[in-house]
Amino acid sequence: MLTRREFLASSTLAAGLSRPAAGAAARMYVSLNSSLLVGGKVGWPDFARLAAKMGYGGTDFNLNAARMEGLEPTRALLAELKIKPAVCGLPVAATCGDAAAFQESMKGLDDAAQFAAAVGCPRMTLVVSPGSQVPKKSSARCWGTG
Questions:
Q1: Lowest-pLDDT choice from 39-48, 76-85, 130-139
Q2: What does the buried/exposed string (b/e) look like for 107-118 if buried means 16 or more CB atoms within 10 Å of the residue's CB?
Q3: CATH code for the part of the protein at 29-127
Q4: Over 50: is that where the pLDDT of 146 sits?
Q5: 127: number of Cβ within 10 Å
Q6: Is 124 helix (H, G, I), strand (E, B) or coil?
Q7: Which residues contact 95 (CB under 8 A, 6 or more apart)?
Q8: Distance between terminal CA atoms of the chain?
Q9: Secondary structure letter of residue 20 according to DSSP
Q10: Helices 109-118 and 71-81 meet at what angle, rounded to 10?
């Protein structure tokens, strides 16, 4: 039986997407996704260190934890590890069913996006659950349209 660590290491090499040779431009790379670590047992910045140690070219980026560390320490960490921040969570309450919470969360989006861009993170994601506590007719209220 293959361990998770062995699978991740071998799949990265098999895909031919490991780190590029020194001086080579990397356009595509494998990034360690935080969903692979059940329970959030490895926090930022140790998650980034794990990604680098396992040979990944990038890592999910914990936006809130990195903001607490600060812009320059986060940049320095990524540069030292020679990995890229691939994606971070979109810090808005878009699926909450509460228009007030959504509008309040939007107030911090600009600052969060600027921080992510400053460390080189090119994208943010939001996981939308396939189910909801809010009935379909009223679900538009969370987006401030109803």
A1: 130-139
A2: eeeeebbebbee
A3: 3.20.20.150
A4: no
A5: 8
A6: strand
A7: 126, 128, 129, 132, 142
A8: 52
A9: P
A10: 40
What amino acid occupies position 80?
Answer: E
Cα–Cα–Cα angle for 71, 19, 16, rounded to 5 degrees:
140
Give the pair of three-digit tokens for residue 75.
């940049």
Q: Domain segments of the chain: what residues?
A: 29-127
- CA 97 from centroid of its chain's CA atoms: 23
Q: Sheet harboring 58-61: ordered strands across?
A: 31-32, 58-61, 84-89, 124-125
Look at residue 8 and tell me whether its pLDDT is greater than 70.
no
Residue indicated by tokens 């431009």 = 25
Q: Is the bond preceding residue 91 a cis peptide, omega within 30 degrees?
A: no
Q: Which pLDDT score is estimated for 105?
A: 85
Give every CB contact of residue 49 below 8 A, 6+ residues apart in sequence. Answer: 81
Please give the pLDDT value at position 77.
97
Beta bridge partners of 60: 87
DSSP letter at 111 equals H
Q: Which of 76, 81, 88, 78 is closest to 115 using CA atoms?
A: 88
Using DSSP's 3-state secondary structure scheme, residue 65 falls into helix
